[in-house]
Amino acid sequence: MPLLYAHRGAASEQPENTLPSFARALELGADALETDLHLTADGHVVASHDATLSRMAGVPVVIRRATLEELRRCDVGWGFVDRDGRRPFEGRGLRVPTLEELLDAFPGVSWNVDVKQRAPSMVGPVLELLRRKRAESRVLVASFDAATLRAVRAAGYSGRTGLGLTEVLRLYAAPLAALKAVRLGGGAVQIPPSAQGLRLDTPGFVAKCHALGLRVDYWTIDDPAEAERLLTLGADGIMTDDPAAIAPVFSRWREASRG
């Protein structure tokens, strides 16, 4: 059955990449959680989409140059602005979580982690943590950077990996027969419906991916009608900022499948 991924948690109603946001997403019916990773100066893997805390905390702290203690002083609840322009989570003690904290807080939950930081490389610390927590079976490692993913695979990661941007472009352009003769490496194509002028939401492209044994996950989908269309197309997963809006689509889809 297709999976509903909460993109940075329930980011439409809670500050993204925070423990309450992820908890709320699961409460709403998300099957898996998605986050982004950076590495602190003192070697902690933390959940943040951006390389700085300017957007989420209003301070120009660069994660790779800061210690975890320094990050903990920053209020990432500040960055959430509601429809009325207010900051309802400011001052509530929300902090950047470590990946270890997330794995511990949600045991058994599947994760999709996007390794953002390229330099210095954080592949070693990420894989060491996943192995130590025995979490490889429930964590898919993704990145836009194909070199990062090649390093993950070369290090013998036993979990699943996504495809990097250049790998997706190769998948799109090369004939199916040629792709069957080579090893792409990853097991998941995680893409928007269109990118760089290319339509990635066609029956032919989805069928091509499936013929190669690749799952197809689309992001970031917050419109229920679009989610329904992509599921009908054959999507294996939908990533959304708004689980409250998309979870009912999955409920109807699963009920119809059982019927």
Task: Explain what this protein looks like in three dimensions.
There is one protein chain. Strands 1, 2, 3, 4, 5, 6, 9 and 10 form an 8-stranded mixed sheet that branches. A two-stranded antiparallel sheet has the order 7-8. It is an alpha/beta fold. Strand 2 and strand 3 form a beta hairpin. The chain contains 11 helices and 10 strands. It has helices spanning 19-28, 54-57, 68-72, 99-105, 123-132, 146-154, 165-173, 176-180, 203-211, 224-233, 243-258; strands at residues 3-7, 32-39, 45-47, 110-115, 139-142, 188-191, 194-195, 198-199, 215-218, 237-240.
Assembly level: single chain
Q: How much helix, percentage-wise, in residues?
A: 25-40%
Query: Would you tell me the structural class of the helices and strands?
Result: alpha/beta
Q: Quote the distance from N terminus to C terminus.
A: 14 Å
Shape: globular
User: Segments where pLDDT lies below 50 for 5+ residues?
Assistant: none
| SSE order, one letter for each helix or strand | EHEEHHHEHEHHHEEEHEHEH
Mean pLDDT: 96
β-strand amount: 15-25%
Using only C-alpha atoms, the radius of gyration works out to 18 Å
What's the count of strands? 10
Write the layout of secondary structure elements.
Blueprint: E1 3-7, H1 19-28, E2 32-39, E3 45-47, H2 54-57, H3 68-72, H4 99-105, E4 110-115, H5 123-132, E5 139-142, H6 146-154, H7 165-173, H8 176-180, E6 188-191, E7 194-195, E8 198-199, H9 203-211, E9 215-218, H10 224-233, E10 237-240, H11 243-258
Parallel strand pairs: 1-2, 1-10, 2-4, 4-5, 6-9, 9-10
Antiparallel strand pairs: 2-3, 7-8
Helix pairs in contact: 10-11
